[in-house]
Each structure stands twice: as structure tokens, then as C-alpha cells.
């Protein structure tokens, strides 16, 4: 088997708050293969963004600690790499785009300035050569009138265009992995579709792997090849997209899918998952989903359930369900 | 003219910060707040209880006792007229704190009223702000100097002068806060439910301008004390024999090498007072919006 | 930008009127006060006529504004020269003081504030903030006197008073102005570093800083270019305030160090009841500050592209 491009193993991240340290994500493991498109889905507070930010070590150093786990990229553990290594990787090999393009772009610098920074940093391009490449990139992300737009300031662009600029910045150095943290959440639905299509096309053109993070199942369903479901700081299911929707294993995944309203349904009420997401400070004995789970059993409350295989490439963190499905492997 | 005053602009979160019993607990745990508050409280008590603490006439001159260094009898020594420096510093505290409080209260009230009027009535806004800009064109000291000079060297002149000097900054803050609050949903809700304008102003807008104004006034207290000391030092403020920290230093200046204690203690007193007030202002600003000012 | 100039005009007019009204604050008859309690009725009348106080209020105001437009700011009673020439004579002193202190304040203040913000909640932050707090709390006139005692009297490093014009040599000029400028800058550095810290904290918490790091930019570039460029807006505004405060503060400093500057002249004029001089000087200073604020506003629009009108 070929080694994955990026392998996160047993990642735990803690943040410091007034009352001490609180665990944001616990024992997270996932792989991103070459050319893969992985979607991480979960509600707000599930830890998906925390996981993504950990890859490039973008957390605040003073208030973050990572007591366990590794993030392997090309054989190197990114969590223990030198700062200079991280700077080399950021933007050129692994790039990231964020949720709110308005606040993620510097308001006092022009678009061209901000994009050519990346080019100068990683490829040593300056002056006319950099300018040419900037216009090229803006064209690549389908911004009309690119040459003129390059000298605009971010506030002059619409939300969709700003996100395209962010994407242009991210792909400038042809990264091998693009992490997209809720790239369409702040945009209108029609623009959403355009941006996703752009990402899909770029992925093919540049042979890039993409890690897409979203709370929107629809976006994930359309875009990802493999889906990782997170809940309350843990990975609860990991499956290829079709399989996930056809046969969800974890009760949370089932709840999420059931909660999506269907046009052809006659139901009078929308399905919901009762209860609420636990705050990171809450300690729950056993499975963190148990207070809300309809299928909860005695064993769920006693210890943290481990991830177990539920088929060829599917795994989930719910022993009772796996038992019920009769797919438990030894 | 730009809209940034002495401090930062009040943000929406600063204005509608939740208040309640939880705030009191947080205040008590906040180190800067406790230190600042305690010191200024001590100084206030010392000032108020001055006659009890030191039942000596601060203006009593006993030439035989001039230039005595600090001792158990004269805690801060005596000055060139034989007056007890400790007592004079205590009484000077009265003057300084009184001026500070008076300036705060009066300028605060005026700022609140003028600021809200400017925010509510667009027709008056332009004129008011031009006037405020004109006043703010001068540094406070210079403005206060001019006014105090014209009115004569007494406590009331200093208070009036400093109040006028500090009103414009307060107006800016209240106006900015009021403008922000006006656009908030709960104000729209009140308007839609038929509340009169006056009621909206009094019940909704004013209370929410209170927080940034309070922080601002704490710093104004400090500035006013420092300014009063400077004015008294220059001779246009409070004149001896009434003791003010500023004029004690002015008098003691000529004898600085022989009787260093006359100049030293009032200076320390001013510094302590201003320091504690600045700490207090930082702490309050921190409580309301952790992004405002320095502090923890 | 033309709008800003237009807005400044009413402000200038208001300042003129305020300066004019200064005399009317005097309790009692200004002519008597200026002439002195002991003056004979004839002398008082002479003063009254000389200052045009025998005309009606609006006549006086009109004359005042008319003169001001011509550049005539009145004449000093004591100095026997026009207010304008008196101010210009003393300009080098106050200017040296203000310029030197500002040129020291800005780099030090911005650096300290940025350090405090970047190393938030560490000992660096606490140290810088403590120093800044002391700077804004300790009265300038007091520390000035202590400074004179230490550096002039005891150590003899600098003269204790007097101003040496730069024409007599940069060394002596600097010697005479160094300590006063330093004292003047203490408060300003305290103020500026606090403002800078606040601005930088705000900026460093923004998403675009995270983006800059995600692009692989070095910390230097991230902070130096992205962060400072944004904090610049607030720093420019603060500098405008500081410049005005420096001139205001020089009033006190010039007194302590016996420097023959504009500030000292104002205080002496007040003592000598030379009210025309006080009025005229206040007016000139008022105009100066309006110009400073105008410049700051223009720089502000240059620094923040969001504010520019396209």
C-alpha cells in the first residue's frame, strides 16, 4: 500500500482557559491519500477546524498544547518539525483557505500584493514576473478583468470573488494538499456551487489533494470522496462517501443524515437529534454521544469506545452498532 | 476630523456587556482593579479623615520649626515656614480629589447630555461637533490655562477650566456609543412598539453609553488631578496658603537640595493617585471589552 | 479631501471667536484689570481705547476677526511687539523641544507597544506596561525638577536651564534641550505604547494574520508588514494627539527649565496680565493644531484604503 500523503495519528489538542486546560480534540486519526478528496463533517464545536489548523500549526502557541499524536507528511512529523520547515511547507506544499474571506484578507494591501507575497516567499518571483503570474492565477480562479482587479483592495470585491482570491493565493505554488475550512459557509448558495465547482476543477488540473471541512452534509456529499464524521472532539466515523450515506454506522451519522429535510417526504416534523453538544469542559463517562443516543447501552457509559472496522474501508466508534450489523472483526 | 478620541472606539460588545452579580466576582478577582481601587480608596479616606489623622492646622507657621527633616513627630518634615508637610499633603489630597471628582461628574453629565443630543438630532450634530473639534484643537492644559487665567486663581476656576477642556473627548465617546446603539435591534424593537423618543433615549440608549463613558471618566479623573497639580505649580491654579500638591512642590522647589522632603512627598502622592486611577481605568476597560487598553 | 478643508474653516472661525471671548471671561472690567488696580482713571481710559474696549461687543468681534484674517493677532502690552513676531521669535525653542521629543517618542513608543502586544501576558508585556503606566502617571513637572537635580546639579551632565540655539553648535544645543525633551517624552511614550499595544493586540487577533502565517511568511514579515500596516492607522491618529500634547506639555517643561519658548511666554503673559498676548498666542496655537489635525486626517485617508472615496 502506498503511504498516505498526510497521516494524522492520535492527535490531541488542548487549549488553556481561565480554569485550566480543556481538551478540544481527542485521539483524532485520519489519512489523506494522494489525489484524495477528504471531507470532514460535524457541527460547530466538533473540532474539525481545530484539527485542520493543527496540520499547519496555526494555533496560538502560548495557549495551546498538543500532548499526544503525530502528523506525518512525507515522513516528517509536522508537530515536531522546525519552524523553518513549517514555513517552507506552509503555502507551498500544504495550503489553507478559511471561512470568512473578508477578514482573512488584509484590508490595507492590494490583491496583487498579497498573492505575490506567496510567490516571492516560495518561488523567488518578483516584479514583472510575479505580476504576470498573479494575473494568470486570477484568471485560473475565473475572476473577470483580472489585470485590473489585481490592483483592487479586498473591500472592493464581492464575497465570492474574495474567496476566489483566497483560492488563488493558496494554489499559487501548486500545493500538494489544500485544506479548505468551511470555504462556502459565508457565501450565498449559488456562489457556493460555483466555488465548489472551481475547487473540483482545480483539483483535477493541479492534481491536488483536498481536505474539505464543512458542517453542511450536502456540500460534503457532492464534493468529497471520503467522509470523516466528527463529534465533540473525536472522530466517530470514517467511510467512503457513497457508503456513508447508504449505510451509516454511527448513530450520530444516522441522526445527521436523517435531519436533512427531504423534498419527497410527507413528515410533519423535521427529524432532530435530541439534546445538545457537550462543551469541551464537560466530562462524560464513556462514549461522548451517549447522552443523546437512541441506541445507548450499558457498555457505552463505561469506557470510551474505540474505532473499529465496519467493512472494507469504513470504520466507526460504536461497538453496539457494529455488533448489530454483524460486521465486527475480531 | 477623525472619530478616535483619547481611548479606543467603544465596540458593540463593550456597550452591551452583560452586567450582574457575576461582574462583581470578576472585579474582585482582577488584580489591577483591586490594587487601583484600594489605593484610591485609601487616599480618599485619608483625605476625608484628614482632620482626624492629623489635627494640626496645615497653614500654621512656626518659624522655629522650619526645615525639620522627616521624624516621628513630623512624618514628612516641615517646610520653609515651619508648616507640617504631612498635614499639608493630606489637605492637598482633599483639594486634588475634590477637583478630580467635580471635573468627572460635571464633565461626565455634560458629555452625556451633549453627546446624546448630537447623536439623536442630526441637525444639531454638525454644529456641536464643530464646536467640540474647536475645543479639542487645543491640548487640555493650554485650554485650562487660558480659562483659569481669565477666571482667576481659585478652585472653582480650575474646575470650570478642566471641565471645559475634557468635555469634548467625552462627547465624542458618548456620541459614538449612542450612534452604535441606535442601530441595534432592540432599539428598533422599542421604536416599533411605539415607545417615545425620550423614553428610548433614557431607558435604552443612555444606559448603554454608560460603560465606555465610565472607563473614560476614570482616566479623566487621573488627567484632571495631574492637570490641577500642574496649574497650581505654575501659579494659575490654587494659591497658597491653601495646600495643593502642585503648589507645595512649587514652594519646595527652591529648597530642593536642603529640604528635599517638601518636594518629594506631594510628588509621590500625585503619582500614586494617578497610578491607581489609571490601573482602575485599565481594569474597567478590560472587564467591559478585553481588547480595550492594556491591563492583565 | 476638499471636504476636510471645508470642515476646517468653521472650526477656525469658532476658535477665533473662542479666543476673542477669553477676555470676556475676566471678572470685572478688563481695562482695569489690565491697567492694574492702582492705575489712574486716565491710564485705565488709555488702555480701554488702546485695546478698543470702548466699542460695542459686535464691533470688537468684527475688528478681531478682520484683523485675524489679515494676519494681525494683536500686540503685546509688555513686550511692545506684535504677538505674531513674539511667537515667531520663540518658535525655535518650542519647536526644538517638540520635534526632539516626538522623534524619540514615536520609535520607542511603537516598538514597546508592539513588543508588549506580541509577547502578550509574558514578563515583557508586564514590564512594558508598568513602565508605560508610570510614564502617564508621574507628573512631568515633578520628575523634571528631580531630573534637573540629578543630571544638572549633582552630575553636571547638562545645563540646568537656558536654551542654546542650534546656530551656536549642535552639541550645546542638544545639551540644553536633551533633558527637557526626554522628560516631555516620558508621558508621550507611556501614552503611545499603551495605544500601540491596544491597536496591535486588535490587529494580531485578526484572521488575515493567520492567513499570512498560513502562507509561510516569516514572523518578521507577518508582524512588520501585515500587522503594523494596520495598526498604523491608529498610530497616526495617536501621533496627532501627541504633537498637540507636546506643545501643551512644553508649557510646563519650559517653565521648569527656564527655556524661552512659547509656553513660557504664555505663562509670563498671564502673570503680567498681558491679555492681548495671551489671546493672540492662543489663537495662533489654535490654528496650528487645526493644521496638525487636518494633516493627520489626510494621512489617515492615505493609510486606510477603505476610507478613500473612489
Please tell me about this protein's structure.
The complex is a heterotrimer of chains A (330), B (296) and C (310). Chain A has 330 residues and is an alpha/beta fold. Helix content of chain A is 33%, strand content 22%. Chain B is mainly α and 296 residues long. Chain B is 71% helix and 0% strand. Chain B is elongated. The model of chain B is unreliable at 1-18 and 291-296 (pLDDT under 50). By secondary structure, chain C is mainly α. Chain C contains 12 helices and no strands. In chain C, 48% of the residues are buried. At the B-C interface, helix 6, helix 7, helix 10, helix 11 and helix 12 of B face helix 1, helix 6, helix 7, helix 8 and helix 10 of C.
Concise synopsis of the structure shown:
By secondary structure, chain A is of the alpha/beta class.
Name the average pLDDT of chain B.
81
Task: Return the string of H and E elements of chain A.
Answer: EEEHEEHEHHHHHEHEHEEHHEEH
Sheet of most strands of chain A:
8 strands, mixed
Class derived from helix and strand content of chain B? mainly alpha
Task: Please report which band the strand proportion of chain A falls in: under 5%, 5-15%, 15-25%, 25-35%, 35-45% or over 45%.
Answer: 15-25%
Please state the overall shape of chain B, judged from the principal axes of the Cα atoms: elongated
Low-confidence stretches of chain A: none
How many runs of DSSP E, i.e. beta strands of chain B?
0
| Helical stretch tally of chain B | 12
Distance between the termini of chain A: 22 Å
Distance from first to last alpha carbon of chain B:
32 Å
Q: Which band does the percent of strand residues of chain B land in?
A: under 5%
Helix content of chain A: 25-40%
Q: Average pLDDT of chain A, to the nearest integer?
A: 88
Describe the strand arrangement of the main beta sheet of chain A, using strand numbers: 6-7-8-3-9-10-12-11
Amino acid at each position: 500500500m502506498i503511504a498516505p500523503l498526510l497521516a494524522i495519528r492520535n492527535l490531541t489538542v488542548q487549549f488553556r482557559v481561565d480554569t485550566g486546560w480543556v481538551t478540544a480534540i481527542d485521539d483524532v486519526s485520519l489519512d489523506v491519500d494522494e489525489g484524495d478528496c477528504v471531507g470532514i463533517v460535524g457541527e460547530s464545536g466538533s473540532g474539525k477546524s481545530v484539527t485542520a489548523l493543527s496540520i499547519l500549526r496555526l494555533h496560538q502557541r502560548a495557549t495551546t498544547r498538543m500532548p499526544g499524536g503525530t502528523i506525518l507528511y512525507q515522513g516528517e512529523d509536522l508537530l515536531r518539525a522546525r519552524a523553518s520547515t513549517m514555513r517552507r511547507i506552509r503555502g507551498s506544499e500544504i495550503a489553507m483557505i478559511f471561512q470568512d474571506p473578508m477578514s482573512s484578507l488584509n484590508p490595507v494591501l492590494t490583491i496583487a500584493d498579497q498573492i505575490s507575497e506567496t510567490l516571492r516567499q516560495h518561488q523567488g518571483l518578483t516584479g514583472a514576473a510575479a505580476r504576470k503570474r498573479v494575473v494568470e492565477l486570477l484568471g485560473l480562479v475565473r475572476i473577470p478583468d483580472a489585470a485590473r482587479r489585481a490592483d483592487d483592495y479586498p473591500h472592493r470585491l464581492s464575497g465570492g470573488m474574495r474567496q476566489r482570491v483566497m483560492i488563488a493565493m493558496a494554489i499559487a505554488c501548486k500545493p500538494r494538499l489544500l485544506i479548505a475550512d468551511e470555504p462556502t459557509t459565508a457565501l450565498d448558495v449559488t456562489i457556493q456551487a460555483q466555488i465548489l465547482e472551481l475547487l473540483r476543477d482545480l483539483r483535477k488540473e493541479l492534481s491536488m489533494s483536498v481536505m474539505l471541512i464543512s458542517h453542511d452534509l450536502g456540500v460534503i456529499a457532492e464534493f468529497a470522496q471520503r467522509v470523516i464524521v466528527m463529534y465533540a472532539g473525536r472522530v466517530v466515523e470514517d467511510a467512503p462517501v457513497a457508503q456513508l450515506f447508504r449505510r451509516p454506522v454511527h448513530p450520530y451519522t444516522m441522526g445527521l443524515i436523517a435531519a436533512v429535510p427531504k423534498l419527497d417526504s410527507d413528515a410533519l416534523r423535521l427529524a432532530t437529534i435530541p439534546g445538545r453538544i457537550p462543551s469541551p469542559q464537560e466530562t462524560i463517562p464513556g462514549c461522548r454521544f451517549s447522552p443523546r443516543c437512541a441506541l445507548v447501552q450499558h457498555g457505552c457509559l463505561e469506557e470510551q469506545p474505540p474505532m473499529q472496522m465496519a467493512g472494507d474501508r469504513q470504520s466507526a466508534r460504536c461497538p453496539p452498532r457494529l455488533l448489530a450489523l454483524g460486521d465486527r472483526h475480531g | 476630523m477623525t472619530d478616535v478620541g483619547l481611548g479606543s472606539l467603544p465596540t458593540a460588545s463593550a456597550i452591551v456587556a452583560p452586567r450582574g452579580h457575576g461582574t462583581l466576582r470578576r472585579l474582585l478577582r482582577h488584580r489591577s482593579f483591586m490594587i487601583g481601587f484600594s489605593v484610591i480608596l485609601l487616599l480618599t479616606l485619608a483625605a476625608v479623615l484628614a482632620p482626624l489623622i492629623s489635627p494640626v492646622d496645615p497653614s500654621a507657621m512656626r518659624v522655629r520649626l522650619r526645615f525639620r527633616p522627616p521624624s516621628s513627630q513630623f512624618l514628612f518634615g516641615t517646610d520653609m515656614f515651619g508648616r507640617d508637610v504631612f498635614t499639608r499633603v493630606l489637605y492637598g489630597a482633599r483639594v486634588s480629589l475634590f477637583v478630580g471628582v467635580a471635573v468627572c461628574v460635571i464633565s461626565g453629565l455634560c458629555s452625556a447630555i451633549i453627546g446624546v443630543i448630537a447623536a439623536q438630532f442630526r441637525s444639531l450634530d454638525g454644529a456641536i461637533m464643530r464646536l467640540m473639534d474647536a475645543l479639542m484643537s487645543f491640548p487640555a492644559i493650554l485650554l485650562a490655562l487660558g480659562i483659569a487665567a481669565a477666571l482667576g486663581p481659585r478652585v472653582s476656576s480650575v474646575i470650570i477650566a478642566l471641565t471645559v477642556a475634557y468635555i469634548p473627548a467625552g462627547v465624542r465617546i458618548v456620541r459614538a456609543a449612542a450612534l452604535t446603539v441606535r442601530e441595534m435591534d432592540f432599539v428598533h424593537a422599542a421604536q416599533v412598539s411605539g415607545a417615545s423618543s425620550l423614553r428610548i433615549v433614557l431607558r435604552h440608549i443612555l444606559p448603554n453609553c454608560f460603560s465606555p463613558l465610565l472607563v473614560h471618566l476614570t482616566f479623566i479623573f487621573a488627567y484632571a488631578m495631574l492637570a490641577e497639580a500642574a496649574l497650581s505649580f505654575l501659579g494659575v491654579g490654587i494659591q497658597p496658603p491653601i495646600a495643593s500638591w502642585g503648589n507645595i512642590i512649587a514652594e519646595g522647589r527652591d529648597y530642593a537640595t536642603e529640604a528635599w522632603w517638601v518636594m518629594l512627598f506631594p510628588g509621590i502622592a500625585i503619582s500614586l493617585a494617578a497610578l491607581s486611577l489609571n490601573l482602575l481605568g485599565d481594569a474597567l476597560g478590560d472587564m467591559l471589552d478585553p481588547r480595550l487598553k492594556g491591563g492583565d | 479631501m476638499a471636504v476636510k478643508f471645508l470642515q476646517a474653516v468653521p472650526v477656525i472661525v469658532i476658535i477665533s471667536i473662542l479666543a476673542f471671548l477669553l477676555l470676556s471671561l475676566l471678572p470685572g472690567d478688563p481695562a482695569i484689570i489690565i491697567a492694574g488696580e492702582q492705575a489712574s482713571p486716565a491710564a485705565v481710559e488709555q488702555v480701554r481705547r488702546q485695546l478698543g474696549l470702548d466699542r460695542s461687543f459686535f464691533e470688537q468681534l468684527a475688528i478681531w476677526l478682520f484683523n485675524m484674517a489679515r494676519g494681525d493677532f494683536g500686540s503685546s502690552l509688555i513686550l511692545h511687539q506684535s504677538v505674531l513676531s513674539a511667537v515667531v521669535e520663540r518658535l525655535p525653542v518650542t519647536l526644538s523641544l517638540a520635534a526632539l521629543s516626538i522623534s524619540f517618542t514615536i520609535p520607542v513608543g511603537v516598538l514597546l507597544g508592539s513588543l508588549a502586544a506580541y509577547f502578550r501576558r509574558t514578563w515583557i508585556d508586564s514590564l512594558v506596561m508598568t513602565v508605560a503606566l508610570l510614564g502617564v502617571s508621574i507628573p512631568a513637572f515633578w520628575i523634571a525638577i528631580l531630573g534637573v537635580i540629578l543630571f544638572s546639579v549633582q552630575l553636571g551632565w547638562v545645563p540646568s536651564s537656558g536654551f542654546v540655539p542650534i546656530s551656536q553648535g549642535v552639541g550645546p544645543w542638544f545639551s540644553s534641550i536633551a533633558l527637557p525633551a526626554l522628560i516631555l517624552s516620558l508621558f508621550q511614550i507611556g501614552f503611545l505604547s499603551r495605544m500601540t499595544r491596544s491597536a496591535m493586540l486588535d490587529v494580531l487577533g485578526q484572521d488575515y494574520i493567520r492567513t499570512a502565517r498560513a502562507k509561510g511568511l516569516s514572523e518578521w514579515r507577518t508582524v512588520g508588514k501585515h500587522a503594523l500596516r494596520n495598526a498604523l492607522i491608529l498610530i497616526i491618529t495617536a501621533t496627532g494627539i501627541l504633537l498637540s500634547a507636546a506643545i501643551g506639555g512644553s508649557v510646563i517643561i519650559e517653565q521648569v527649565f527656564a527655556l524661552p519658548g512659547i509656553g513660557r511666554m504664555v505663562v509670563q503673559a498671564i502673570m503680567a496680565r498681558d491679555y492681548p498676548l495671551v489671546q493672540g498666542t492662543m489663537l495662533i496655537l489654535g490654528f496650528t493644531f487645526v493644521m496638525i489635525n487636518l494633516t493627520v486626517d489626510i494621512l489617515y485617508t492615505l493609510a486606510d484604503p477603505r476610507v478613500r472615496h473612489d
